[in-house]
TrEMBL record:
This is Molybdopterin converting factor small subunit. Gene3D superfamilies: 3.10.20.30. SUPFAM superfamilies: MoaD/ThiS.
Length: 88
């Protein structure tokens, strides 16, 4: 019998841009995470604690679309973390 309180875990690809890449120390990785964008962000911070402040100000893109923490992510989704940037 399946526990209804158990949250499905799925692999997603996380891509880090600019300051997020610097904080994570990698450009991209696959994380096993819960079903929500918030779960992905929490897993990324758990894997790379230096991301804590960066993630708080990042835009989050899931499969090419702007996202919020409560959006469900499909297995194999690509989640991109884009910190604010300046320039011309």
């Amino acid at each position: 019998m399946t526990d209804p309180n158990r949250r499905a875990v799925r692999p997603v690809t996380v891509r880090y841009w600019a300051g997020a890449r610097a904080a994570a120390g990698v450009a991209e990785e696959t994380l096993e995470t819960g079903p929500l964008v918030g779960d992905v962000l929490d897993a990324a911070v758990a894997a790379h604690p230096d991301l804590t402040e960066v993630v708080a100000v990042c835009s989050v893109i899931v499969d090419g679309r702007a996202s919020s923490r409560d959006l469900e992510v499909a297995e194999g989704a690509v989640v991109e973390l884009l910190p604010p940037f300046a320039g011309g």
